[in-house]
């Protein structure tokens, strides 16, 4: 049983069918298609259509995965059972759970899900992506876009800054006197020096970063007036991209898999939950040692978890896998930067840790050909991974 049809779930389901074709694999998902968060910033910037980042599960069905489009409503580890929204109950020997994130609205002042109707988060790709795109395109000349990222941890740490970059690219073409203001929930962010170097090169004076120490945190949000108050300053904008704090999805929280916290602790060798036997948690919902919450991380975890589950079902000892993550960010359509890492579970505690001297970030400096190459690598990575997970 696999719950969740994103990068982690699709990877786990497809990999499990390939490494153990005698095992029955059922993928439970809440929609017939999946729109990826990676490359959704290109849709917001008008550089791709939503259809270009949306995929069906036909290829998984063709490989023998049973796909149930019926949201998982509850997980009962004590009975090894999943209850679907329709009321159907599915038993499992082992469950691989990749449910993604939910938003912690009450961590915001006056926060509630209704805020997203006017202040889109666009942190789950689909309708919210299009809403934010349309608001930016309708913005008056010389207007302001606020992007308000949360404190760590959250899905895709470099994502808000790639978004700021690509929104600035759109504005530089269509509304060059507009501004992008990042009112951040932290003082530093992923690949910060590389992003700021790119902003100075491509969009001088258009993007401003306001760290947490300069504003003290959000104290009030007026969705109707498109205004956010902080303890030191008030900010108004024509468009506010409010990205709330996050947690593991409710299905794993309700099942007790997060313990007393917001995320699922797992064994880094098998991805089995520390709170429940026979349940393996991967992707954004899990605390996976040094690995960041990214689509590529989830996909590599899905493969490693599939091998571990196949071994356990065959009563074999799982092998220690090497896992990799590469995160590309587009500062402009032809300006890419990246960070990469390699990870392995430690002997003794099974924590997934970075291997010494592995990975790293893009080289800094005026390197136009490298930036173009990395933009090409980003597009190639996306084409390859979506083909691997969702393609024929």
From TrEMBL:
<dbReference type="InterPro" id="IPR049386">
    <property type="entry name" value="FCSD_central"/>
</dbReference>
<dbReference type="InterPro" id="IPR016156">
    <property type="entry name" value="FAD/NAD-linked_Rdtase_dimer_sf"/>
</dbReference>
<dbReference type="Pfam" id="PF21706">
    <property type="entry name" value="FCSD_central"/>
</dbReference>
<dbReference type="Pfam" id="PF09242">
    <property type="entry name" value="FCSD-flav_bind"/>
</dbReference>
<dbReference type="InterPro" id="IPR015323">
    <property type="entry name" value="FlavoCytC_S_DH_flav-bd"/>
</dbReference>
<feature type="domain" description="Flavocytochrome c sulphide dehydrogenase flavin-binding">
    <location>
        <begin position="322"/>
        <end position="390"/>
    </location>
</feature>
<feature type="domain" description="Sulfide dehydrogenase [flavocytochrome c] flavoprotein chain central">
    <location>
        <begin position="129"/>
        <end position="244"/>
    </location>
</feature>
<keyword id="KW-0274">FAD</keyword>
<dbReference type="Pfam" id="PF07992">
    <property type="entry name" value="Pyr_redox_2"/>
</dbReference>
<protein>
    <submittedName>
        <fullName>Cytochrome c</fullName>
    </submittedName>
</protein>
<keyword id="KW-0285">Flavoprotein</keyword>
<dbReference type="InterPro" id="IPR037092">
    <property type="entry name" value="FlavoCytC_S_DH_flav-bd_sf"/>
</dbReference>
<dbReference type="InterPro" id="IPR036188">
    <property type="entry name" value="FAD/NAD-bd_sf"/>
</dbReference>
<dbReference type="InterPro" id="IPR023753">
    <property type="entry name" value="FAD/NAD-binding_dom"/>
</dbReference>
<feature type="domain" description="FAD/NAD(P)-binding">
    <location>
        <begin position="1"/>
        <end position="101"/>
    </location>
</feature>
<dbReference type="InterPro" id="IPR052541">
    <property type="entry name" value="SQRD"/>
</dbReference>
């Amino acid at each position: 049983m696999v719950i969740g049809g994103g990068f982690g779930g699709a990877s786990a389901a497809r990999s499990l069918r390939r490494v153990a074709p005698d095992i029955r694999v059922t993928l439970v998902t809440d929609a017939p298609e999946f729109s990826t968060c990676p490359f959704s910033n290109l849709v917001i910037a008008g550089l791709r259509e939503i259809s270009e980042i949306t995929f069906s599960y036909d290829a998984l069905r063709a490989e023998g995965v049973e796909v149930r489009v019926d949201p998982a409503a509850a997980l009962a580890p004590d009975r090894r059972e999943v209850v679907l929204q329709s009321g159907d109950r599915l038993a499992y020997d082992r469950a691989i759970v990749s449910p993604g994130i939910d938003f912690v609205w009450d961590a915001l002042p006056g926060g509630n899900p209704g805020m997203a109707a006017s202040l889109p988060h666009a942190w789950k790709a689909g309708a919210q992506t299009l809403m934010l795109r349309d608001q930016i395109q309708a913005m008056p000349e010389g207007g302001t876009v606020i992007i308000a990222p949360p404190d760590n941890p959250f899905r895709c740490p470099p994502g808000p800054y790639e978004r700021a970059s690509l929104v600035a690219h759109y504005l530089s073409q269509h509304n060059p006197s507009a501004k992008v203001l990042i009112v951040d929930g932290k003082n530093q962010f992923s690949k910060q020096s590389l992003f700021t170097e790119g902003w100075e090169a491509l969009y001088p004076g258009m993007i401003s970063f306001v760290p947490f120490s300069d504003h003290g945190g959000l104290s009030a949000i007026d969705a109707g007036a498109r205004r956010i108050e902080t303890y030191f300053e008030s900010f108004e904008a024509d468009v506010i991209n409010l990205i709330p704090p996050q947690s593991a999805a409710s299905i794993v929280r309700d099942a007790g898999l997060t313990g007393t916290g917001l995320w699922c602790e797992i064994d880094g060798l098998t991805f089995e939950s520390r709170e429940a036997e026979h349940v393996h948690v991967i992707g954004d919902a899990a605390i996976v040692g040094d690995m960041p919450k990214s689509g590529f991380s989830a996909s590599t975890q899905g493969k490693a978890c599939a091998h571990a589950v196949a071994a356990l079902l065959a009563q074999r000892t799982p092998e220690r896998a090497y896992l990799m993550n590469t995160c590309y960010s587009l500062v402009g359509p032809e300006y890419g930067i990246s960070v990469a890492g390699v990870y392995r579970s430690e002997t003794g505690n099974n924590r997934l840790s970075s291997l010494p001297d592995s990975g790293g970030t893009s080289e800094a400096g005026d390197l136009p050909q490298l930036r173009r190459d990395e933009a090409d690598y980003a597009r190639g990575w996306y084409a390859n991974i979506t083909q691997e997970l969702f393609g024929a």
